[in-house]
Amino acid sequence: MPEGLILPQLETELAAPGGKGRPTLAQLRTEFEAIRRTGLSTIRNRPIPGVSALSAPVFDHSDQMQAAIMVMGPSSVVDCHPTGKQARILLAVTRGISKRLGHRSTDLSGSDDGERMASSMSHANTAKVELAPNRRRRSTSGD
């Protein structure tokens, strides 16, 4: 989001009582820049010790964020490094979904992995939805 839209709210929240341990506006700007550069946000052991997460946005054709997908779990399992396997898969999926929504990526890698993953996820979910009504239930009464 443009800083002009969020700056008044950020300043209000940062000035609110009980702000001990909160980042400064300069620290937030540095963090936002890192998020824009990597395309993903990470958090490790905060606010819950032992729990970490990665999150990446999904954009539509008008460059508006429509959703975010998050990978979350025990810090011993979730790799928060921006070039780690989980981050690469998450970014491939969110970029693939964004592409399907008409977003024109600024990623010049030329990889279609995200498109393939998003497509296969879409087909898998469609298949589950289509098959679910036709599934026969197994009888537990012995007949």
Q: How many DSSP helices?
A: 4
Q: How many distinct beta strands?
A: 3
CATH architecture level-2 label of the domain at 40-134: 2-Layer Sandwich
Largest sheet: 3 strands, antiparallel
CA-based gyration radius = 20 Å
Helix content: 40-55%
Question: What fold name goes in the CATH topology slot of the domain at 40-134?
Answer: Beta-Lactamase
Q: What is the CATH class name of the domain at 40-134?
A: Alpha Beta
Name the shape in a single word: flat
Q: Give the SSE order as H and E letters.
A: HHEEEHH
Widest sheet: strand order? 1-2-3
Explain the overall architecture.
- The chain is about 45% helix and about 15% strand.
- By secondary structure, it is α+β, with helices and mostly antiparallel strands.
- The chain has a domain of about 100 residues: GAF domain (Beta-Lactamase), CATH 3.30.450.
- It starts with a helix and ends in a 12-residue tail after the last helix.
SSE inventory with pairings:
Layout: H1 3-15, H2 25-38, E1 41-44, E2 51-59, E3 65-74, H3 85-100, H4 113-131
Antiparallel strand pairs: 1-2, 2-3
Helix pairs in contact: 3-4
